[in-house]
């Protein structure tokens, strides 16, 4: 691999990139599924929660007087791993309780922790782009197994900027960042996200943490972990 133009900004995905897919699917999603009905019952009168529930009703075309139907829809979306904005925002509110009550800490790979801290220290501008809400992103890094990583990041993007497989989302991020696309490195484990970022002109590295390198890997820079991303960045790979 050879490094491209000088990178000033790194935008990273979370699930499968900084953090394990298992943590998201075996800890966070089940916690949300277990506590959703109670949370909605207890908080449905809260202004922010009521607005989110109204969004669910509108998006799913549900009758607006059936709270059990709304909860059932949310459970179905959790099961199907739907990246629907009001669901992701509600999950963030639920996970806040879980983190604050010490039920879990945010999983971050040791290599991601070490390199994110080192990159931030050397002045690299670091951002997160995840389908998880901005609040959920701050929680996974704020309550990480390695302590609070949020000081490393200059900003966060979620589905409010657009869906992760859409080119326009990366163009929107670029216009927020105010840098040229080739200065930006996007890290992800999902080929369709890399393809969209690349079409917007960003540089990309594909994190393949486990298993075989997919055949499509020939078209991308591929790294097993953040140490390999760093080797590529400094041109020793
Ligand atoms: C912020 S941690 C939970 C991540 C999440 O909810 C999710 O759907 C994963 O999305 P990603 O875009 O990081 O793959
Ligand atoms: Mg991912």
TrEMBL record:
Q: What is its EC number?
A: 3.1.3.77
Under which name does UniProt file this protein? Enolase-phosphatase E1
Catalysed reactions, semicolon-separated: 5-methylsulfanyl-2,3-dioxopentyl phosphate + H2O = 1,2-dihydroxy-5-(methylsulfanyl)pent-1-en-3-one + phosphate
User: What does the UniProt function comment say about this protein?
Assistant: Bifunctional enzyme that catalyzes the enolization of 2,3-diketo-5-methylthiopentyl-1-phosphate (DK-MTP-1-P) into the intermediate 2-hydroxy-3-keto-5-methylthiopentenyl-1-phosphate (HK-MTPenyl-1-P), which is then dephosphorylated to form the acireductone 1,2-dihydroxy-3-keto-5-methylthiopentene (DHK-MTPene).
Q: How is the cofactor bound?
A: Binds 1 Mg(2+) ion per subunit.
Instruction: Please give the biological process terms from Gene Ontology that the record holds.
Output: L-methionine salvage from methylthioadenosine
Please tell me the species this chain comes from.
Answer: Oleiphilus messinensis
* Subunit-structure text: Monomer.
Methyltransferase among the record's keywords?
A: no
The record ties this protein, via NCBIfam families, to: enolase-ppase, HAD-SF-IA-v1, HAD-SF-IA-v3
UniProt similarity note: Belongs to the HAD-like hydrolase superfamily. MasA/MtnC family.
Q: Which UniProt keywords apply?
A: Amino-acid biosynthesis, Hydrolase, Magnesium, Metal-binding, Methionine biosynthesis
């Amino acid at each position: 691999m050879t490094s491209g133009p000088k990178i000033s900004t790194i935008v990273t995905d979370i699930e499968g990139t900084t953090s394990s897919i298992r943590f998201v699917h075996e800890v966070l999603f089940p916690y949300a599924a277990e506590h959703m009905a109670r949370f909605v019952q207890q908080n449905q009168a809260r202004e922010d929660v009521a607005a989110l529930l109204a969004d669910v009703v509108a998006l799913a075309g549900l009758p607006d007087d059936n709270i059990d139907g709304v909860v059932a829809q949310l459970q179905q979306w959790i099961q199907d791993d739907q990246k629907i904005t009001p669901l992701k925002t509600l999950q963030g509110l639920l996970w806040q309780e879980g983190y604050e009550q010490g039920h879990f800490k945010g999983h971050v790979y040791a290599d991601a922790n070490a390199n994110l801290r080192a990159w931030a220290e050397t002045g690299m501008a670091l951002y997160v782009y995840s389908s998880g809400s901005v609040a959920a992103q701050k929680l996974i890094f704020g309550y990480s197994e390695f302590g609070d990583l949020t000081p490393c990041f200059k900003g966060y993007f979620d589905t409010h900027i657009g869906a992760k497989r859409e080119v326009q989302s990366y163009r929107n991020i670029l216009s927020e960042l105010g840098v040229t696309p080739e200065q930006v490195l996007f890290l992800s484990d999902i080929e369709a996200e890399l393809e969209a970022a690349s079409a917007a002109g960003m540089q990309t590295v594909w994190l393949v943490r486990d298993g075989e390198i997919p055949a499509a890997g020939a078209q991308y820079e591929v790294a097993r972990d953040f140490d390999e991303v760093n080797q590529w960045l400094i041109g020793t790979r």
